[in-house]
Amino acid sequence: MSAVSAFIVLEGGEGSGKTSLLGGLSNALRQLHFNVLATREPGGTSEGLALRKLLLSADGLDWEHGAELLLMVAARVQHVKRIIEPALANGTVVVCDRFVGSTLAYQGAGRGLPVALIEELHDKLVGGLRPDLTVLLDVEPHLGLARSVRRLETAQHDEGRFETLKTAFHERVRADFLRQADKNANRTVIVDANRDYPFVQAEVVARVTEWLASRGR
Ligand SMILES: Nc1ncnc2c1ncn2[C@@H]1O[C@H](COP(=O)(O)OP(=O)(O)O)[C@@H](O)[C@H]1O
Ligand SMILES: [Mg+2]
Predict the structure, then answer these.
(1) Which of 14, 19, 20, 149 for mutating ligand 1's site (highest number of atoms within 8 Å of CB)?
(2) SS (HEC) of 115-167
(3) pTM of the complete model
(4) Hey, which of 3, 15, 94, 97 has its CA 20 to 30 A from 204?
(5) Is the beta carbon of 194 within 6 A of some atom in ligand 1?
(6) CA of 123: how far to CAs of 3, 64, 77, 86, in Å?
(7) Are 2 and 133 in contact (CB under 8 A)?
(8) Measured between alpha carbons, how far is 70 from 91 in angstroms, rounded to an integer?
(9) Which pLDDT tens digit goes with each residue over 46-79?
């Protein structure tokens, strides 16, 4: 049997548990003998990592919204062409922390840039790749932000630029993630990420494993 390829994306607001799950889900799938690549956006390549620092640092950088969008897209072009597409062509389950859904939610609904422009950049420059499965970790913004700010206090990095935005921004982001989930209901699972982490991880692992099994049939 040839190895399974699938593109699974973890989406959700700040502190919803995406990065924790990137590790938790990937390890669980490796134990089930899938080839797994765990990666994240912005990032995933050295070029993307350089852009990540520019995009997420809370220290003095103040991008115009259009510039922020183009940097996000630039990082995604590098990531998809150099890392994600080759891995998918090679029998790998790619688990990715954020993808175009985050750009639609943050730069579209959050910043107010046109959705049609984001879709066009994605189709023309990124090549239109979409997740096979999106796991939306849905969390109340005040709860997620409190987790995220607590983590930033002890982190070695300074990635708090979006955490400084007001709750109304994060409410628009959350509503847009839920709108996207509704629109793509057949390839999205919504998980209640307000609960304690072990419950969230157990549900994500169970639902993704079930989805992978149903796909193989
Ligand atoms: N369900 C949860 N309950 C409590 N704390 C959580 C939960 N999920 C994540 N955390 C903690 O919140 C912080 C942010 O989690 P993280 O996985 O980095 O979220 P994200 O990548 O979505 O911003 C981390 O310190 C993490 O340990
Ligand atoms: Mg994260």
Answers:
(1) 20
(2) HHHHHHHHHHHHCCCCCCEEEEEECCHHHHHHHHHHHHHHCCCCCCCCCCCCH
(3) 0.97
(4) 3
(5) no
(6) 27, 23, 11, 18
(7) no
(8) 30
(9) 999 999 999 998 777 899 999 999 999 999 999 9
